[in-house]
Amino acid sequence: MRICSRNCDLARGRRCDHVNSRGIVCCPEESCMLRLCLAVAVSVAAVSAAFSQSDPIAARRDAMRAVSSATRDGAAIAEGRAPFDAAKVRSIFETYSRSAKAMPQLFPEDSRSGGQTRAAARIWEDRPGFTAALAKFDKDAVQAAADSKEVASFRAAFDRVAANCTSCHEAYRTRR
Ligand code: HEC
Fold first, then answer.
1. Ligand 1 cavity residues, CB under 6 Å
2. Whose CA is nearest to atom 37 of ligand 1?
3. DSSP code, position 25
4. 30 with 74, same domain?
5. What pLDDT, in 10s, does the model give residues 14-33?
């Protein structure tokens, strides 16, 4: 199930994979149709609250997929396959921060299993550690955005933030 969020205010036809404050990903797969988004925005608060509570596993996996898609865009810039674009770079790190802020609410007790989750039991056993790892990811993303002046400084900043992916996954995600 996909719900457009309030954030879905981009021009028609543009992809938008925003994660709103409740962890709802806006139209990640299809392009954002403005009309639909506006219609949904009216009741979005109620709908998104219901969505994130009824399916937190889908919401957190969507949040991580938005992070992953932003990372692919970042890698293209870092590797010189795409030009350095300050607005694009900002939006990559904003996607990280948004997801990091949404994630803590998406791991209720009753979501330890099901929905093909790979969340490790340690998330519930060491909640403070997990929350701290997300807060660090958010903080590093904010710092990286500030540090990224051109492609070289972006590359270094991007590498520093990306170290969070591996360290958190090793601790808090099960291996396949
Ligand atoms: C603080 C912890 C944390 C950080 C930081 C983090 N992740 Fe994750 N990630 C998780 C957890 C936990 C899951 C498993 C969620 C589940 O299956 O319920 C996950 C799942 C994923 C998935 C699988 C999504 C799916 O389809 O189920 C991808 C892809 C991913 N992360 C990419 C990234 C990338 C790229 C970064 C860094 C830019 C990153 N993550 C940073 C904790 C983190």
1. 57, 60-61, 64-65, 67-68, 71, 117-119, 133-134, 137, 162, 164-165, 168-169, 172-173
2. 165
3. B
4. no
5. 344 444 444 444 444 333 44
